[in-house]
Amino acid sequence: MLVVMRKAARTWVAKFLLLILAVSFGIWGASRSLMNGVSETVVAVGDQKVTVNEFRLAYQRQLADLGRRFGTQITSEQARALGIENQVFAQLAAGAALDQLSEKMNLGLSEDRLAKLIADDPAFHSPSGQFDRQLFTSRLRNAGLREADYISERSKVAVRSQIVEATADGFEPPKVLVDALKSYRDENRSLDYLLLTKANIDPITAPDEKTLGDWYETVKSRYRAPEYRSFSYVKLEPSDIADLASISEEAIKQDYDAHKKNYEIPGTRTVEQLTFETREMAEAAQAELASGTPFDQLVTDQGKTASDVLLGDFTREQMPDQTLAEAAFAVTKEGGTTPVVEGTFGPVILRVTNIKEGRTRSLDEVKDEIRKALAESAAQEDIMTIHDQFEDLRASGSTLAEAATQLKLKPVSVKPVDHRGRDMSEAEVTLPSRDQLLAEVFKTDVGIEALPLNIGTDGYLWFDVTEVVPERDRTLDEVREKAIADWTAEQQKIALGAKAESLKDRLAKGETIAALATELGLAVETKTGIRRASDDPILGRAAVAAAFSGPNGTVAAAPGADPETQILLKVTAVSEQPTTNVLGNDDSQVLALAKAAGDDILDQMVNRLQTEYGVTINRTLAEQAMVR
């Protein structure tokens, strides 16, 4: 969650944050520092100063905003991990830089304009929606803020907004920028390429001992053995104590008779559907069927294939249209067809195959299932009794195995496994409640009696950790076979990459890709309509990027989508015409991206101002403000 919060905390829009008013009556009240004249400065930009109280107010506002977004109160530790204080420093320094610029440019606000801004503030509106002078006075008084101080601060924010609006809000991206972005997005390329594999290089000979040993020393962390743990466990679920012998034949038959409907197997049909525009056309087709024309011929006459008319396998209840279901399940002859049926979407004729009539499973077929279910149901009543007895035995000093044996449960010993549940040979080990059990095992030390785990709806699992095998570096001899295979694969990649580069050089010097293909015994493959965002299953991202690394005629070599391959390519055509039916051809996205340049301009301007005026931060005072 902290990762998500950190990302969200950083996605701030400069225009919004630069316009934050130092008062917010709905949440915090006003900054008393505007009235009391505290001279302690946390952030200074030129002649502009941000006091301790102003910093504290902005910091608390940022915490409250994130808290509302995530539905939780942000702790001081989380705030520090998110870097909230640095974000607040950046916000306040940016605002102060704009204030210094407005002062330098002698920017101001008319009294009439300022009065209108205050009158339009909903914080000072009566229930009728009009500005209320008494409400204005009382809210400022309750916040501990003098009118003159509020008006001064409101004026400062209004002037600041003028700079922001002139720089970013009023920004209209030039046509050349929009066209360039569209061109970048729409550009697509055609290319010829060769798919190179290890078959195109000489076989890699096995490494000698020194070569393998030197290589292994540089990569042995890949082969490091994880921590392994041995443990034993005892599982208590109804199936572990169910007494199958206690269930009589009479009880089984009574249960079968009472729940016979549960053992019904519904009939199924494979249904094909031929649709018609009008009933007259459907009835004409029905007449053809009656005269001996095969159903498949009607399908072909409509220009359709078998897959076009296949609906699938259905029970009567599964059919999406019950009118069709009645007709389909009225057919009893394999391959038979229905009369014309008025379905939801018009007249149709159905062909029915793979007919399987419904039936009820016999008592003999389900006897064992019923016996097991009845025994487990009866055992549920004894679960808590045996749980308590097991706990009592453990408390009296019995080992896990002793307690299990006494209560006729089965203790299971597990040889060393890692946190994934794999043993030392990398084989999967079958475990009950696998993830839950392993998580607890790897948090428990040897000799510690852990609490039983709740498993399922009414089960328990006890375990004891018996051995911890620390993680370690494996020796080369332990992993020799895999190390040789990995070394060989690595050398093959290197050799194939070198081969691709040498072929690229020959291609760049004028040899044709067809001649190279003949030499290698390969076919020249072609791709068209490749765009920068294409994720081609053969070329892969690297080769697509290489295809856009230069103009028409560019030759390049890059790893393919399969990392064991290399792509040798030559760009044969470049087009800026948008490809049809491609996701991402929305011009609104391009316009939004172009307009975002206004925010970038604002950011650059603020950074330039901060460099020109100088920014100082008193982190000691800020730390004090954050802990108060």
TrEMBL record:
InterPro entries per the UniProt record, alphabetical: PPIase_dom_sf, PPIase_PpiC, PpiD_chaperone, Trigger_fact/SurA_dom_sf
Domain PpiC: 247-368
Parts forming coiled coils: none
Membrane topology of the entry: Single-pass type II membrane protein
Source organism, top-level taxon: Bacteria
Cellular compartment(s): Cell inner membrane
Record flagged with keyword Membrane: yes
Listed transmembrane segments: 12-30
SUPFAM superfamilies: FKBP-like (SSF54534), Triger factor/SurA peptide-binding domain-like (SSF109998)
Alphabetical keyword list: Cell inner membrane, Cell membrane, Chaperone, Membrane, Transmembrane, Transmembrane helix
Similarity annotation: Belongs to the PpiD chaperone family.
Name of the protein in its database record: Parvulin-like PPIase
Lineage of origin: Bacteria, Pseudomonadati, Pseudomonadota, Alphaproteobacteria, Hyphomicrobiales
